[in-house]
């Protein structure tokens, strides 16, 4: 029997929606890329939409090995999922995945859907847990810290100017 995602793994993925995908270039160099549409596909697979991922797609064409790191930001914990990925440019997988994500996201042009068949997973846990009582305390601490970080970055943006991307 293959790998099965736990209820906690699914909850972390659903909460985060953001992961970092690691692939390997044809030259053997690492490639790490953020993906903002990660979702659970089924009991043993995770997917994301390829909206702007030409290097990830090219790397997977040569070597289908991929790792996804998903962390729930306030809890400072998550999972490292690894396995083999498949790329879908059309068909039932493409259509279903796009519909699942676009139900709660803006509509984007989607080049492909990348599905990771999870072979193994390992927990990711902040060393901050060595110093605090439990996850509830961690979340409270990071709510406060997040507000401080947001204020600091807003001040930076006010001084530097806000990023504007032309169409």
Description of the structure:
The chain has 167 residues and is α+β, with helices and mostly antiparallel strands. The protein has two domains: 119 residues, Roll (Pnp Oxidase, Chain A); 30 residues. 34% of the residues lie in helices and 34% in strands. It is built from four helices and seven strands; from the N terminus they run H-E-E-E-E-H-E-E-H-E-H. Strands 2-1-5-6-7-4-3 form a seven-stranded antiparallel beta sheet. A hairpin with a 4-residue loop joins strand 5 and strand 6. The chain is globular and about 45 Å long. The termini are far apart. The relative contact order is 0.16.
Short description:
Helices cover 34% and strands 34% of the residues. The protein is α+β, with helices and mostly antiparallel strands and 167 residues long.
Please state the average pLDDT score: 95
Q: Report low-confidence residues grouped into runs of 5 or more.
A: none
Overall SS class: alpha+beta
Q: Quote the beta fraction.
A: 25-35%
Q: Which key phrases capture this entry?
A:
single chain; alpha+beta; Pnp Oxidase, Chain A; 2 domains; 4 helices
Give the helix/strand layout.
Layout lengths: L6 H10 L2 E6 L5 E6 L3 E4 L2 E6 L3 H9 L2 E8 L4 E12 L3 H11 L9 E14 L9 H26 L7
Antiparallel strand pairs: 1-2, 1-5, 3-4, 4-7, 5-6, 6-7
